[in-house]
Write a structure and sequence with these properties.
Order of helices and strands of chain B: HHHHHHH
Largest sheet of chain B: none
Oligomer: heterodimer
Number of helices of chain B: 7
Largest interface: A-B, 36 and 42 residues
Strand content of chain B: under 5%
Distance between the termini of chain B: 87 Å
Helix content of chain A: 40-55%
Radius of gyration of chain A: 14 Å
Strand content of chain A: 5-15%
Number of helices of chain A: 3
Radius of gyration of chain B: 33 Å
Helix content of chain B: over 70%
């Protein structure tokens, strides 16, 4: 599957790495649920490293849609809450 | 639902909203392309803003660095004049300036990191915009209306993700830059209002006290000299020469 690491680019990820990524993803979600910024950071870092290490980088001019998107690994708890909230964090930079 | 699917949902919602503004499906490609070019301009502006903020902090750093030896010298002069209280005041200001310098270093590093991120974003987005432009022409030329709809959806989605990613990077860099600009302005304001004036401007209170001190010493010395001259019979012409 194609995974985007936000702020970095897209990777093709195959095999059991996908399963490991999903496990980390669940833990990251749990960390966010209990407002644990340290753990959230750690899991987001691990997710990004796993994709970088086990994935194959897609060229910049590839227009493929990603199957999964990893949020920026340096996101703070506050930013993460904002990002997933109704208002969102991505600005309407085009207005 | 994990964070990845929630992230995908946020991003999909963002670019769907964006593309919905196209007047009709036939103009979606052109509309998306125009927005891409705008976004590229925004990234460039974002990079320029970060660079400006960084330069401003670097300037403040230089300013503070030139104050350090000056404060040291003032403390030395004060001690020589047996004014430990003034020497302490100068050294306290020096310590404060050093703290500010450390914090400025950290902020400059932060901004450099933001600059790098945005530069990378710009590079990725440029490559995708160019690929999109080519694909847009191909779709228009080669596909029937029905087929084109599917292709348009794919191309617009593929680049929509990158646009959202870039948009977020711009926003985060902008937040950082604003924070630092506000802080830089606060330091400037303190300097201007005189709170930090003591160690950042030459006409400081410390300078004045030292000047007064040396003036007083000069007066004392002059008095002694005059007294000596008077006792010896006095020579006014020499007095005029010495005091100019």
């Amino acid at each position: 599957m194609i995974v985007r690491v936000m702020g970095e680019g897209q990777y093709r990820l195959e095999g059991d790495a996908v399963g490991r990524l999903n496990e980390l993803d669940d833990r990251a979600q749990e960390a966010l649920d209990r407002d644990d910024e340290g753990e959230l950071d750690r899991y987001l870092d691990e997710m990004a490293s796993l994709v970088r290490r086990d994935g194959e980088r897609l060229p910049d001019d590839d227009l493929s849609v990603s199957d999964a998107i990893v949020p920026p690994n340096d996101m703070t708890l506050q930013e993460a809450k904002m990002f997933f909230s109704e208002e969102g964090l991505i600005p309407d930079v085009l207005q | 639902m994990g964070l990845m699917s929630r992230t995908s949902a946020v991003i999909k919602a963002w670019y769907s909203k964006l593309l919905d503004r196209a007047e009709d499906p036939a103009t979606t490609l052109d509309y998306s392309y125009e927005r891409q070019l705008e976004l590229l301009q925004n990234v460039k502006k974002g990079i320029a803003d970060v660079v400006t903020a960084k330069k401003r902090l670097e300037l403040q750093t230089k300013k503070l660095e030139t104050e350090l030896p000056k404060l040291d010298e003032q403390a030395r002069q004060a001690l020589a004049a047996d004014r430990e209280d003034l020497a302490r005041a100068a050294l306290e200001r020096k310590a404060y300036a050093q703290q500010q310098l450390q914090s400025l270093d950290q902020q400059i590093d932060d901004l450099a990191a933001q600059q790098e991120k945005l530069t990378d974003s710009e590079k990725r987005l440029s490559a995708k915009v160019e690929a999109f432009r080519t694909q847009k022409e191909t779709i228009k030329a080669q596909y029937s209306a029905a087929e084109a709809q599917v292709k348009i959806g794919e191309a617009a989605t593929g680049i929509g993700e990158e646009m959202a990613d870039t948009g977020l990077a711009i926003q985060r860099a902008q937040d950082k830059t604003e924070q630092m600009q506000a802080r830089a302005a606060a330091v400037d304001e303190l300097v201007d209002s005189g709170t930090l004036e003591d160690y950042t401007s030459s006409g400081s209170a410390l300078d004045r006290e030292l000047t007064q001190l040396s003036a007083k010493n000069q007066v004392d010395a002059d008095i002694e000299r005059l007294k000596g001259e008077l006792a010896a019979g006095g020579q006014p012409k020499e007095l005029e020469k010495e005091t100019k």
